Amino acid sequence: MFTQFLFFLINFLLVSSDGDVVGKITVGYQGWFAAIGDGSPINTWWHWAKIGQQPPSPTNVAVISWPDMREYNTSFQTNFSNLGNGQPASLYSSFTDQTISTQFKWMSQYSIDVAALQRFNPNGIEGPIRDAMAAKVRTNAEKYGVKFYIMYDVSDWTNFQTEIKADWTNKMQAYTNSPAYARQNGKPVVCIWGFGFNDPQRPFGPAECLDVLNWFKAQGLYVIGGVPTHWRTGDQDSQPNFTQVYDAFNMISPWMVGRIANVNDVDRFYTDVNTPDLAYLKARGIDYQPCILPGNLSHHDRYHGELMWRQFYNMARLGVQAIYISMFDEYNEGNQIAKTAENAKMVPTNYNFVTLDEDGVVCSSDYYLRLTTDGGKMFKGQTPITPIRPTLPTCPLNFAQSKVNNRSCLAFISTTTDWNTANQQCGQLAPGAALVSMDSAFQNSAIQ
Ligand SMILES: *[C@@H]1O[C@H](CO)[C@@H](O)[C@H](O)[C@H]1NC(C)=O
Ligand SMILES: *[C@@H]1O[C@H](CO)[C@@H](O)[C@H](O)[C@H]1NC(C)=O
Ligand SMILES: *[C@@H]1O[C@H](CO)[C@@H](O)[C@H](O)[C@H]1NC(C)=O
Ligand SMILES: *[C@@H]1O[C@H](CO)[C@@H](O)[C@H](O)[C@H]1NC(C)=O
Ligand SMILES: *[C@@H]1O[C@H](CO)[C@@H](O)[C@H](O)[C@H]1NC(C)=O
Predict the structure, then answer these.
(1) Disulfide: which of 3, 176, 389, 420 matches 309 by Cβ 3.0-4.6 Å?
(2) Relative to the CA of 101, which ligand 1 atom is closest?
(3) Are residues 369 and 406 in the same domain?
(4) How many domains does the chain have?
């Protein structure tokens, strides 16, 4: 009995209580798209095109997904053919105020708590626009009631050991004065992504990484580590001798992009990686912020939300402290949750961008934002933990474009627990047919 109490007490003391990241949904925010003529200091097609001096085209493209452009009032003409609906193929710049404002408004609308602004080496040609984006993130986070923190990415940052400290002191630290700057355990939050990876982009040794990590902690910060998937076992994507570094973080957030492509993979990682990771971290009083991703759209990994929901389900039943979603606007890796082209009408006709209806299930452009809302509710205990994906592929937004009419759509919304009753009520189901899931509803040709 006493031992049990002691265990309870130890666990209670070790695990951080809710703050701006613990108990919350954080999204990685790139904000790294620009266009020639957007007024930005970089003035190139940054991250849209391989050769930034020339407009994106089928032979000069750096993204694998196309955004839903309908809510941006400013866009830049590419050299792709028109979209399937005849409209010009134009793209946004993250630097445009109305664009970043729209994106932070979505975060707020879809109950995303925190944006982690990615900050790569800011000392080269990208420095000025990265600085400008940090200021715009602050403005919009404050405006829309979203928290934010700086997430350094040390990839290819050769002199990071001294430069990252100078960047924090001279530039980023000032952002902690913002009421929107995320705090955990009373401390401003910073994340450093890239320590311990076993690859040439991040060849840094444990001593320099530990020096930087301890320096940030000494600044009074709560420090998150964006670490390799196999950090705990120190093999595969992780260097072997980083245990001391990993153990020094306040929170661990292992990378998952490129590791899972179907629900079986998700479950395998739940058993072999997430469960032992959490046990290891709990025993050491380190918080755990596993990564959830929608899946590489271009690679057909999403299964209209099944991949992402399974991760939410597994992390909710595991009882992790926090969630990191990779990413909000990562159109380059096809792992964006932000609004995305729904179908062939919304992408250039002369390139095969994969759209959200790729497996035959019509999904609204905001589908992965809505799924994030629902996953967040489950994670926070506001809805029961369930493996059944509750997020309707279409409606209530944009369903004028879906195959499903208003009546059946609204019936589904009001009775998400009982598809058959819903169908009987709206009279959409073919005689004798039975619905067992949302999928069968939307794949059922009886519903038009
Ligand atoms: C876009 O919207 C913003 C904010 O509402 C406004 O200030 C700006 O003038 C608009 N731009 C265009 C091109 O309509
Ligand atoms: C646009 O693409 C066409 C080929 O489709 C090419 O001839 C033209 O030079 C391109 N324009 C620009 C501005 O890159
Ligand atoms: C850590 O491990 C890597 C890979 O085995 C090795 O190259 C490096 O020298 C080791 N560093 C230290 C400080 O032991
Ligand atoms: C996503 O899929 C595309 C197309 O198969 C591939 O080229 C790309 O490397 C994938 N991205 C990631 C991050 O796995
Ligand atoms: C469907 O219903 C919504 C309101 O619930 C309405 O705004 C919309 O115009 C309707 N669309 C059609 C095609 O009837």
Answers:
(1) 389
(2) 4
(3) no
(4) 2
**What average pLDDT does the structure give for the chain?**
89
Q: What is the pLDDT of residue 392?
A: 78
Please report which ligand is nearest the Cα atom of 55: 2
Measured CA to CA, the distance from residue 23 to residue 139 in angstroms comes to: 24
Give the predicted TM-score (pTM) of the model. 0.86
Domain identity same for 63 and 119: yes
Q: Is residue 448 part of a domain?
A: no
Q: Is 222 left (phi over 0), alpha (psi -120 to 50) or beta?
A: beta
Same domain, 321 and 433: no
Unique residue bearing structure tokens 């992965």: 368
Residue 403 dihedral angles phi and psi, to the nearest 5°: -80, -10
- Best residue for ligand 2 mutational test, from 57, 61, 81 (most atoms within 8 Å of Cβ): 57
The letter for the amino acid at 210 is: L
- Write the pLDDT tens digit of every residue in 193-206: 999 999 999 999 99
For residue 408, is pLDDT > 50?
no
Distance 208 CA to ligand 3 centre (A): 12
Residue at 268 is within a domain: yes
Query: Average pLDDT, stretch 416-420?
Result: 44
For residue 42, the 8-state DSSP code is: S
Classify residue 388 as exposed, middle or buried by CB count within 10 Å of its CB (0-12, 13-18, 19+): exposed
Rounded-to-integer distance, Cα 54 and Cα 59, Å = 11
Q: Residue 120's domain is classified under what CATH number?
A: 3.20.20.80
The domain containing residue 223 runs over which residues?
2-379
Query: Whose C-alpha lies nearest to ligand 2, atom 10?
Result: 79
* 387 assigned to some structural domain: no
160 inside domain:
yes
Quick one: 369 and 417 in the same domain? no
Residues 404, 372 share a domain: no
pLDDT band at 5 (very low <50, low <70, confident <90, very high): low
Q: Where residue 364 falls among pLDDT bands split at 50, 70, 90?
A: confident
Cα–Cα distance, 203 to 211 (Å, whole number) = 15
Average pLDDT over residues 227-235: 98
Residue 93 CA to residue 153 CA, distance in Å, equals: 21
Residues 172 and 110 reside in one and the same domain: yes
Q: Report the 10 Å Cβ neighbour count for 336.
A: 25
User: Does residue 364 sit in the same domain as residue 414?
Assistant: no
For the cut 50, the answer to whether the pLDDT of residue 427 exceeds it is no
Residue 349 sits at φ, ψ, to 5 deg, of -75, -15
Whether 341 and 420 map to the same domain: the answer is: no
Confidence of residue 445 (pLDDT cuts 50, 70, 90): very low
- Residue bearing the bigger pLDDT, 436 or 117: 117
